[in-house]
Amino acid sequence: MADTIYTPQNPLTQYPGPPFEKQQQTGPGDIHDMKPRPDHGEESYVSGKRLAGRKALVTGADSGIGRAVAIAYAREGADVALAYLPEEQQQADEVAALVEAAGQKAVLIPGDLQDESYNTTMIEKTVQELGGVDILALVAGVMPTVDSIEDFETETLDHVLKANIYTLFWTTKAALPHLKPGASIITTSSIQGFQPSPSLAEYAVSKAGIANWTRAMAGQLAEKGIRVNGVAPGPVWTPLQPAFVPNEKIESFGEEAVFGRPGQPAELAPPFVFLASQESSYISGETIAVTGGTPIH
Ligand code: NAD
Ligand code: MG
């Protein structure tokens, strides 16, 4: 049985499974006559730090969604390794200071996720410095816009697939020997993976691929008690937008969302916390839409 909803443990064996004792009640039924008794949280649902004692790696942790996730993870009690590009050092230093101000350990690991060996050393350094790893929040991503297939370049697609997709395989393979039952992997898809904009074909296939990778990897890793889920953001106010979207589009950024505005990175952090925490013990293979009301499925 679960100690608390936050105690990391194998979700497959956290609660009783079949075969169950034969039992029949007359409606409407009574919880007291069920064998075994269902857990409604009477003892297990507690309030408190949701990631106490956990060790997380967050990619893209210097800015935007990754920065918000790193801050939230630290304030929920996790030590956090921060991965980012070398030119983002200053923003990453700010995040490290925020993690430390929350009383947690921060490790800075700059590098380029397109490079397979960096993915491996990123995991090794996390394990070395934090004494293990049990949460991978894979947030980093790139989003080039290409308006016409006439402008398609192999190089662009290679770049997108390396930075957005290959890294998921490399990181997960390297981390696997360290991931214990109760560990959690969280990917970052996009509304673009479900409803692609014409000028984001390269990006959109990568984001659809991430959601599909999430389902496949959830199936592969279930027997190890490792859950794999994703978050699919709608428009979010981060540097990705002014960095990749042509200037004339930024003025109306987010108006297409049902809520009529973009989300803030802080509005994305709670689902990353939820999916990292044992409280989401019965969820795997899912990608949660955080889109300001716009349906994706
Ligand atoms: P962001 O620019 O703040 O974060 C992206 C991060 O990715 C960068 O900070 C950088 O550290 C990292 N990164 C990029 N290329 C890298 C590389 N080659 N090696 C190592 N790190 C690299 O923007 P964000 O919006 O917070 O993006 C985070 C994730 O959210 C991305 O995967 C993005 O596709 C996804 N997303 C964003 C939006 C949005 O509207 N902002 C919408 C849907 C999905
Ligand atoms: Mg950045």
Describe the protein's architecture and organization.
The structure is a single chain. The protein has 297 residues and is α/β, with parallel strands linked by helices. It has a single domain, classed as NAD(P)-binding Rossmann-like Domain (Rossmann fold, 3-Layer(aba) Sandwich). It is 35% helix and 12% strand. It has eight helices and seven strands; from the N terminus they run βαβαβαβαβαβαααβ. The chain has helices spanning 64-75, 89-101, 116-130, 154-175, 201-221, 240-244, 247-250, 265-276; strands at residues 55-59, 79-84, 106-110, 135-138, 184-188, 227-233, 287-290. Strands 3-2-1-4-5-6-7 form a seven-stranded parallel sheet, with helices on both faces. Helix 5 links the parallel strand 5 and strand 6. The longest helix is centred in the middle third of the chain and has 22 residues, at 154-175. The relative contact order is 0.15. Bound molecules: nicotinamide-adenine-dinucleotide and magnesium ion. Nicotinamide-adenine-dinucleotide binds next to helix 1 and helix 6.
